[in-house]
Amino acid sequence: MNQPNPAQHQAGSPLESRYRRLLWAYPGDYQAERGDEIVGTYLDTVGPGRRWPSPHDAVDLLGAGLRERLRGYGALGLVAALPLAATAALSALVAVSVFLLLQVEFEDPRFAGLDPVGPFQTLGAVIWLGWLVVGLAATTLPGSWARTAAAGGLLLTVAVPPVAAVLGQPGPPLFVLVPAVALGLATLALPSHPGWVARGLPLLTAGCVTAASVAFSAAENGGNMFTTYGSTPELLAMAGGLLFALVLLVGLGGALRADDAGLWATLLLATPAGLFGADQLSQGIWGSQGGGPTPMAYATTTASILLVGAALLAAALAGQAARHQTVRRRVLDDACPTCGHRSTAPTRT
């Protein structure tokens, strides 16, 4: 007796239509050619009574569609760059978290004129502790567990400021939170099967920053250069520049081996790196008021950095797509009209 086909049973159902909506991520011609097959495959795997695609299926479909679009642009290096950018972003967040915990949050709140939040200056300590947990997860539980922890860290970063406002507790300033959110978004692409270097990098970063922070405190000999968030914008701006420079160096090294993933990662991280310097850039362009830029000046500078970063990435994609189409056109022009094979005869000039 033939078993009923789940895909046929779900045909025309709300679940099928919702799967089909997710196909927008694919190029139009690919949807027309393979759409029925893709949706049918997913419908075959779902249990009875389901009305919505699972989060895993939704992410899988959107990711596959993005890869197919980038394949058409000849920019699969961008897909390969996502795990590299995520690893670098997490290491940067771990470094910032360790520094801010040791140099700011554990300092006497009277330096900032704040009421303490337990042993910390602000409720922002919860954010930085959360990213240290994410770094530990990336080392010990790589793959989907690490990405889930990264999503939790991102949600924590977004949720703490409004919670602090509701509770009447101090929180970290925007010039720290905005780049942390941008880096947190990048960490959602942590690799499924990282090598030992990628797994150990967050903990190695934490150890190095801890050692540097202790050494710096000892060198101050009782001084208090970093005691509040207000004393950190210059250093954070330098940290953003260092992040960009290191990723660019890795990208150039990969480019020498015909691997452009590192250069794509540099483009992806250019915006978060620039956001670390938004406070200083705002003051340089618009001036300062009360020791920092006005909210409008900071918002304008931040929006400009986001637009420039998006424009650079779009320009790189457009250039790669144009070059890819040129190469494809040459290949088709050189193909034999009868058999379709490319001619190996040298072109005469």
From TrEMBL:
Keywords attached to this entry:
Membrane, Transmembrane, Transmembrane helix
Q: Which domain of life is it from?
A: Bacteria
Membrane spanning residue stretches: 75-102, 122-141, 148-167, 173-190, 197-216, 236-254, 261-278, 298-319
Q: What is this protein called?
A: Uncharacterized protein
Q: What is the lineage of its organism?
A: Bacteria, Bacillati, Actinomycetota, Actinomycetes, Micromonosporales
